[in-house]
Amino acid sequence: SRIHVDDIVLLCQVLVDPHGAPGLFDAGPAAVINCCDSDPAPQHEVSAFAYELLGRPVPPAIPFDSAELSAIQKSFYEESRHMVNSKLIEIVGELNYPSYHTGLPASLEEERRLSRPGVLQRLLAPAAFLASAGGRIISACAGEKPVRIALVDNGSLKAEATLSLRRLAADLEASLRSQGRNFRVEAVSARFADRIPAREVGGVPAEILPGWLKRVSAERRRRGSRVLMLPLLIGPSNTLTKTMPDAALASPDLDVEICPTLVCLCPVLYGAGKTGAEVVADMLADGLAALGALAVTNGAAGGAGHGDEGSDCVMLCDHGSPVARVARAREAVRKALEHKLGQPVAGICMERREGPEFDFNGPLLEDALLALPTGARVRVALLFLQEGRHAGPGGDIVQIIQGVLEKRPDLSVQTTKVLAGHTALISLLAERVLKSVSVRLFH
Question: How far is the C-alpha of 201 from the C-alpha of 208, rounded, in Å?
Fold first, then answer.
């Protein structure tokens, strides 16, 4: 067992407060408090996780019986304990870092902020680490409150977008809990969704960030409660860099952390090949494969490229953004998809602002389709996460393609489905949960 230093400080703060732990110091038997987190685990599992966080290969485990250890070292591993922290939880209510799965990433983020070596480097000082010497893991207190996660999308006035977000939140929570992580995931939108009539979303009103944070703050009732905002976004739009931090700043009683977007090009968080672009490209490739043979459609969405008369081409279409860094995320996905398919993939957008300063978006979907040669067969890979006003039945993309086909009936156009529903999306979101950073970094 182990514990994050912030949670040791939390216990000390409660103990020095005369009203912090009523009855603890009353006359009676001495109280013994196991000061440990809620996730006891063998040292080799913790070390392996630390290596992965640092992007370093995990060395092979050395069997305990064949390891060259001093008597003191052997005693340490033989006497290692897996502790129960139920009394600690009774006193402090909940831990900031109930598991090494959250504590070590937080330590790494703090060390990077301070630009100095710390707990992870000290943890990985040996060239190899030991397999567990044995011992039964005792489960932590079942009453510990889960860390709250807001799965945040941009928001839509369409009921299906909220219903889809709720399905994703439920699937993500089930996935995290199957991994032994105590999280509660809730569907929250950045804007608009609170205007949807409750009857259209199962009788439960949709929430946007300010209202959700206010509700969570009232339910927690303890200053500094940790909550995560997990963006359901491809790239770092203004929803990530402004809307979410501003909402968190208005809730000072909560310790808010923000997770990376699905495609994160920050080298501090993710190295080459782990940005998420490859995973998203794999999902899109699966969608393209599911289309089967190309045929004329009435406006499903697909991909685009350029080719000779009657040639097949692929296009990658996103919404379009006034923010160049969002286009860079799409470009990373485009390159990964192009590599996977072994053919050119053109980057296009559904809509964009006029002017050369926004040319990073590429051409509009409508213009790209109209510019194709006679008889071109087109697959448009939709870089959209959920059905709503833009993607899905009757959405903007369908209408754009229908308008093109009226002018160019010689074209064959197919589109992929939105990414929600692909199992890899849940896995990618679960990975992003482990890379949250303090909202203070956004101000």
Answer: 14
CA dist list (Å): 153 to 101, 266, 388: 25, 21, 12
| Secondary structure (DSSP) of 408-431 | -TT-EEEEPPPSTT-HHHHHHHHH
Structural contact between residues 219 and 138, judged by C-beta atoms closer than 8 angstroms: no
Model-level pTM?
Answer: 0.67
> What are the pLDDT digits (tens) for 14-45?
776 655 555 555 545 556 888 889 988 888 88
312, containing H or E segment: strand 312-318
d(CA 348, CA 366): 9
- The tens digit of pLDDT for each residue in 360-407 reads 999 999 999 999 999 999 999 999 999 999 998 999 999 999 999 999
In the chain, how many H helices and how many E strands?
15, 9
What is the Cα–Cα distance from 123 to 51, expressed in whole angstroms?
9
The one-letter code for the residue type at 109 is E
Which of 107, 123, 208 is CA-nearest to residue 436? 107
Angle between helices 277-290 and 423-433 (to 10 degrees): 170
Q: Find out whether 186 and 232 touch, Cβ atoms under 8 Å.
A: no
Q: Contact, 379 vs 314, CB < 8 A?
A: yes
Would you state the structure tokens that stand for residue 358, as one six-digit string?
Answer: 């926004």
